[in-house]
Amino acid sequence: MTGTADRPARAPDRTPPDPPTGTPRPAPHALNPPAGPSDWASRTALVTGAASGIGRATAVALAAKGVSVAVLDRDAAAARDTVALIQDTTPGRALAAPCDLADIPGLRPCVDGIAEELGALDILVNCAGVVGPRGSLEELTEDAWDTVQTVDLKAPLFLARAVVPHMTAVGHGGRAGVHGGRIVNVSSASAHRALAYSHAYAAAKAGLESLTRTLAGELAPRGINVNAVAPGVTASAIHGTADTEAARAERARTGPTANLFGRPCEPADVAGAIVFLCSPESRQITGQVVHVSAGAIV
């Protein structure tokens, strides 16, 4: 039949009417304003492993936005070098915070001292890590396993525990109300590969990604985003002096760590992703792992 009784009723039109001529529409970013210089300048960050590699690149990139940065590293002299670089090339404020992440009881006093100096903490970037000795299952020692798990997994957890009270202390009407707190963990593509002889490191980084998700679930009600980045082959001091430019280029082109572009990442590539995850534009991103590996993991 073709009568009107067989046609479904049309839903009422609930489209709001156009505003009167001349009425301003809300700005696209009214609920999530882009960060201007003054917004970034009100923020403070703690970056671990900031004496070199990805950590240093991240500290400098945040400071270039005007963020006050605590440069935490066990190498006090190299940490001071990063501070000098920040002071010479960026508008940001920086202070060196010598600290050994293997000293878990010492983490909270270190964080509290940084917060007292900077006034608050809005951003935590857990970048420091150790690879540990590569070896077969039979060659892996308990001490080597424990060292890697402590620095790469246990320390990020207890640093977050120490930092979160300083993030939430500013309240939802303060800096955290505009940007929210940010925690970014630096994982590795190794957590996603079957790399022989990297038992401790790969396990720790896989655990760090799981920790990222559990912290994201717990801290979201407090206005804190927690994410991770997973670099592929990248210039970094973590692999020691044997990790030459030629060696990195070869690992990026061939073998189990090769990527789609056939080129290694630079620390600044990873730092750029970290800075984005610290920005207000990332406010709806939490519990995620961002791969910065030139397609090594797809």
Give a concise summary.
With 298 residues, this protein is of the alpha/beta class.
How would you describe this structure to a colleague?
It is a single chain. The chain is of the alpha/beta class and 298 residues long. The protein has one domain (37-292): NAD(P)-binding Rossmann-like Domain (Rossmann fold), CATH 3.40.50. The protein is built from nine helices and seven strands. The protein has helices at 37-41, 53-64, 76-89, 107-118, 142-168, 175-178, 199-219, 245-253, 267-277, and strands spanning 44-48, 68-73, 94-98, 123-126, 181-186, 224-231, 289-292. A seven-stranded parallel beta sheet has the order 3-2-1-4-5-6-7, with helices on both faces. Strand 2, helix 3 (76-89) and strand 3 (94-98) form a beta-alpha-beta unit. The chain is globular. It starts with 36 loop residues before the first helix and ends in a 6-residue tail after the last strand. Residues 1-9, 23-33 and 171-178 have low confidence and may be disordered.
